[in-house]
Design a protein that fits this description.
The structure holds two protein chains of two kinds. Chain A is mainly β. Chain A has one domain. Chain A is built from one helix and eleven strands, in the order αβββββββββββ. The longest helix of chain A is centred in the N-terminal third of the chain and has 23 residues. The radius of gyration of chain A is 30 Å and the shape is elongated. By secondary structure, chain B is mostly beta strands. Chain B has a domain of about 120 residues: Sandwich (Immunoglobulin-like). Chain B contains one helix and ten strands; from the N terminus they run αββββββββββ. In chain B, strands 3-10-9-5-7 form a five-stranded mixed sheet, with no helix packed on it. Chain B is globular, with a radius of gyration of 22 Å. Chain B starts with a helix and ends with a strand. About 25% of the residues of chain B have low confidence. The chains are: A mainly beta, B mainly beta.
Chain lengths: ~180, ~190
Amino acid sequence: MGTFKFRILSLVLVLMSVFIPVGSAFAASTFDVTITATPTFISISNDTATWVMGAILEGTTYWWSSTGNAPAEPFVDGGMKSTITNGSSVPITLSIHAHDFTGGVGWALSNTTVGSNIVMLYAGNTSTVNAAGMKNLTDTWSQTMATGFSGATLKWCMKLATGTFTDGVGKSGTVTVTAAAT
Amino acid sequence: MYKLLVSLFMVFSLFIALGCGESPKGPSLTVEPSPNLIAPVVVNSTIGTPSSITASLNDEPPITQSWISPGKVNIGNYYSGAQAEWFIKVHNGDSTKTKYTVEYREPAYVSDGFVSLPTFNRVWVIVSESSPTLDPYETRTIPITLKIPSNAKIDAKKWEFWISVMEDSPAGVIKTELCSRWLITMR
């Protein structure tokens, strides 16, 4: 009987010795890749998603504002066209960029001057000092609208300066407002 | 004699067991939960997979608002050849089915001390569902894997990339894009 118990005990210990190394093999080492993340939420919406301009003229400036004209300076909520609603749980940075207009020969966005099939597009928001302080939009880089923003809303507007045209085909462009944690 | 042999084997096994606890090993991935971790995750291999998503989320926006989470993911001790996986949650706040594009994006800005890698290859970021269609008010968990080949040379110690989530919509409209920032620190 004593020998039988000893054999059972031996078997248990041997089995333990087999399993212990398997568990230990996953112990942390200083070379482990680590990942940390916190439950922050990034959330914005924009209430006016289109700017339908109709027929437009060469060498003219058009406003996407509450009145369709240049807003009073400095810009205030009442003069803006669209509202970005922020539901993020952390301060965010809002940036904006645009893409060249397509349709027919297309229009390129410029940050220097208008020209033949070249236009300039700008964005401004409440607290922008004046029209000259609006951000020039191109498809090359993003412009920052607000940093460390934690307000509920941000109102904004745009203006388009046209150059000259070589066709009368309708154009469409895309503007993207981006939100990310600051 | 038998008892002696068994005893020796047990002692030998015990030494092996203790030794393995301190032995070096290949690359693996662990998660260091922060106090507000989205979901407790335990992984024990080079590929981490969320084992459960049970935690309730504080500050969650209303169900009618589209959102993503988390806003930032920090990966530490990373190196070429390693594979790190985390996930992004995408919530559709619309009352209709909505198709999204989830993809790698160059950062619009970076944190202090971090850079955007000009040589980064977007195929190193694997989005398990890059074009998900979400039901009304659905929240989808989408795994994101960072897998850089072992022969890729990364010059920067700290670098950053973003994951962009955007509703599919036709050209000619004003879009909103939500981004999750991924900050990588090389070992």
